[in-house]
Write a structure and sequence with these properties.
The chain has helices at 2-12, 17-31, 49-57, 71-81, 121-131, 169-179, 192-207, 211-214, 216-228; strands at 39-43, 63-68, 90-94, 106-112, 132-143, 181-189, 236-243. By secondary structure, the protein is of the alpha/beta class. The mean pLDDT is 95. Helix 5 (121-131) crosses helix 6. The N and C termini lie far apart (41 Å).
């Protein structure tokens, strides 16, 4: 069953609008970098869905490594990778990105909605900088502070396992600059349409989870609009930065 789920996920994408938005932005950023022969780190990989989606679309990647501190999720990632025919280039490992990740190892690192869970985020950014080769790229996705809401019940919504609610753009770029990175691009995600999709999904989970399947076509349409049009604002940010030097 896991192999069937992985196959459908790789062919159709996530059936969660929020996850589809995050993955869409990350994959779009990665696609522009030219991934053939690149060594990539999925920092805070969870169940490995990003890495498994990536390797199915770009089989000429040299290697993609996923790291996460959650043993259950890493075991799930390993199980799913056994269903991937091109699994020889995927490595999932148990560990923490707050620890040293090596020096000049990776061409690309991406980290999606992880930094807001970590108290010492500056050491993580320094670890990323050390782990990247000269000219290497970091793609970071995090929630922003002062998020807009449509539904009143979500005005005071908090994520229980966040150590901070989010970042503001200036704070984030300053932290990246302190770590030695140069900003390349900044995109707002979960803009007017994506934010509505997320709120609808959360409301369905609160009221009655099967409702999400009834609204699924609308949710996925809203996600597609968020991905295709430049958002004037967003509840999250996807930022691409570069380590000094050239590959």
């Amino acid at each position: 069953m896991d192999c069937l789920k992985l196959y459908l996920f790789q062919k159709l994408g996530s059936m969660s609008a929020a996850q589809r938005i995050r993955q869409g932005y990350i994959l779009a950023k990665l696609k522009k970098l030219g991934l053939s022969g690149k060594k990539i780190l999925d920092a805070g990989c969870g169940d490995g869905s990003y890495a498994l989606l990536l390797v199915s679309q770009y089989p000429n990647i040299c290697q993609i490594m996923g790291i996460d501190f959650d043993e259950t999720r890493i075991n799930k990632a390993v199980d799913l990778s056994n269903c991937e025919k091109n699994n020889s280039i995927i490595i999932f490992t148990l560990g923490s990105i707050t620890n040293h990740l090596g020096d000049n190892v990776f061409d690309i690192i991406y980290c999606v909605d992880v930094l807001e869970h970590i108290s010492d985020d500056q050491i993580v950014l320094s670890n990323f900088h050390n782990a990247l080769r000269p000219g290497g790229i970091l793609i970071l996705h995090v929630p922003l502070l002062d998020q807009g809401r449509y539904f009143l019940w979500l005005k005071e919504w908090k994520q229980a396992n966040h150590v901070r609610d989010g970042y503001n753009e200036e704070e984030l770029t300053n932290r990246l600059d302190e770590a030695g990175f140069e900003v390349v691009t900044i995109s707002y995600t979960f803009g007017p349409f994506g934010a509505l999709a997320w709120e609808m999904e959360e409301t369905c989970r609160k009221v009655w989870i099967p409702l999400r399947y009834l609204f699924l076509p609308i949710l996925l349409l809203l996600a597609t609009i968020d991905l295709r049009y430049r958002n004037p604002w967003g509840n999250a940010i996807c930022i691409t930065v570069k380590k000094e030097g050239s590959i």
